[in-house]
Design goal:
With 423 residues, this protein is an alpha/beta fold. It contains 14 helices and 15 strands. The chain folds into 2 domains: 2-262, 3-Layer(aba) Sandwich (UDP-N-acetylmuramoyl-L-alanine:D-glutamate ligase), CATH 3.40.1190.10; 273-420, Mur ligase, C-terminal domain (Protein-Tyrosine Phosphatase, Chain A, Alpha-Beta Complex). The chain has helices at 2-17, 30-41, 59-65, 74-89, 109-116, 140-152, 167-173, 235-250, 255-262, 292-304, 325-339, 368-374, 396-402, 417-420; strands at residues 20-25, 47-49, 97-101, 121-124, 159-163, 179-184, 191-201, 204-214, 223-230, 273-277, 281-285, 310-316, 342-346, 361-365, 383-388. The strands form 2 sheets. A 9-stranded mixed beta sheet has the order 2-3-1-4-5-6-7-8-9, sandwiched between helices. Strands 10-11-15-12-13-14 form a 6-stranded mixed beta sheet, sandwiched between helices. The longest helix has 16 residues, at 2-17. It is globular and about 60 Å long.
């Protein structure tokens, strides 16, 4: 009932103010992409973006109405209603563009959102072979089809920004009447990443860098520039910047302007963020969530991280995989064994990471609390630690225990009081 009322109010607000709506959809990297796209579009528009990863039937109307999540506070819910009525009946300076992250946890979620608000442009992130939330669907194809569905709602010639390295998305885009802008590392991408590398300052890794090449058939003259993403590492941290530049091209924003806007962009907490760990260690905090494709990419980053004395992968359960769970945990176990010197498995499903290692040492913990107690005693100077696991595992507790400066806990995911109360 509450969701139905929120949808009605949000739909009414959209109809009154008629903002342009850019939807960000996909299985991996939506929040980082949403933030990067908003950073670029803010150069020309008055933009409101989804807060954190509010992408559900509740999160989207919260963004449309410009309110925080009231959680279980009845007074806060009353404030939401008051805000909605003020938007509908009083003069307001409303944004002329909304950048909305949208997601699906079960069949029909995106259909519900699309009844609430229709996109004027769509940005698609990765749609991997085994996507997150697959246990709620008949097949991986059904997940990918729903996550791509906002693209089918576009009007003819509206911008559709897609990953050039994703075969499913490329194939699906052909079925739309949209104007396509691709981004990624593949030949022929309208916005192409070339020469990816770690970005250093004073002999310390502080982010990622790559050359951006704009193809001549993108609608603007062929151009080049360098993009730097600070604070996080990994190929997946450069893709949101490339998507944002492609979105900028779609809205006639020059490359130089987009690159300048991205100088202030940092990926959100828990997405490959670099943190100082105890005993002179480096933490790659990727604790927001975990799916097979995302863990594989994170392990590739750990494997290539320069000058690490030991590479340690702290990996929690990957949830919501249904019948694919055992197979995918076993597959990731083999990759982790070749990417790390020590694998710390956290959770019941993660026990698969400790089976028959050929290279790495392994340790196993039943939950994040026990891992947080034990791991600080195992680390030593020069170690680089990747920490990643599904949201419900609460593996950010491990990151918190490993921090050199406890005050840095404000940089972690799920630090709000409402989350803390769930402990």
């Amino acid at each position: 009932m509450v969701g139905f009322l929120l949808a009605i109010l949000a739909r009414a607000v959209i109809r009154r103010y008629k903002p342009k709506v850019v939807m960000v959809t996909g299985s991996v990297g939506k929040t980082s992409t949403k933030d990067a796209v908003a950073a670029v579009l803010m150069t020309r528009f008055l933009v409101r973006k989804s807060d954190k990863s509010f992408n559900s039937e509740f999160g989207v109307p919260f963004t449309v109405l410009g309110v925080d999540n009231p959680w279980r506070n009845p007074f806060a819910w009353f404030a939401v209603l008051k805000r909605a009525l003020a938007l509908l009946f009083l003069p307001n300076h409303y944004p002329n563009m909304l950048v909305l992250e949208v997601g699906s946890g079960k069949p029909g979620d995106l259909a519900h959102i699309l009844k609430m608000v229709a996109p004027d442009a769509v940005v698609v992130t990765c749609l991997p072979e085994i996507p997150v939330h697959v246990e709620a669907y008949a097949s991986p194809e059904a997940v990918r089809e729903e996550e791509f569905s906002p693209a089918y709602a576009l009007q003819a010639s509206a911008p559709l920004i897609i990953p050039a390295d994703d075969s499913y998305t490329l194939h699906s885009a052909i079925r739309t009447p949209a104007r396509i802008f691709s981004y990624g590392t593949a030949e022929g991408a309208a916005v192409r990443l070339v020469g990816e590398d770690f970005y250093e300052s004073e002999q310390r890794i502080i982010g990622m860098r790559a050359v951006i090449e704009i193809a001549s058939d993108s609608g603007i003259p062929e151009q080049k520039g360098e993009v730097v993403v600070k604070g996080s590492v990994g190929h997946t941290q450069l893709l949101p910047a490339a998507a944002a530049i492609a979105a900028g091209i779609a809205f006639n924003i020059p490359l130089s302007e987009s690159l300048a806007a991205l100088e202030a962009y940092e990926p959100p907490p828990g997405r490959g963020r670099l943190l100082h760990g105890r005993n002179g260690t480096v933490i790659i905090d990727d604790s927001y969530n975990a799916s097979p494709a995302a863990v594989e990419q994170a392990l590739a980053t750990l494997k290539t991280f320069p000058r690490a004395k030991r590479r340690i992968a702290v990996l929690g359960d990957m949830l919501e995989l249904g019948r694919y769970s055992v197979k995918e945990h076993q597959r990731i176990a083999a990759i982790a064994d070749q990417s790390a010197d020590l694998v710390a498995a956290v959770g019941i499903r993660a026990r698969a990471f400790t089976v028959a290692p050929a290279h790495a040492e392994v340790v196993q913990y039943d939950n994040a609390r026990t891992a947080a107690e034990a791991l600080p005693k195992l680390i030593r100077e020069g170690d680089v630690l990747l920490v990643k696991g599904s949201q419900s595992i609460r593996i950010e507790r491990v990151v918190e225990a490993l921090l050199a400066n406890p005050a840095d806990r404000t940089l972690l995911v799920r630090q709000e009081k409402a989350w803390k109360k769930r402990e």
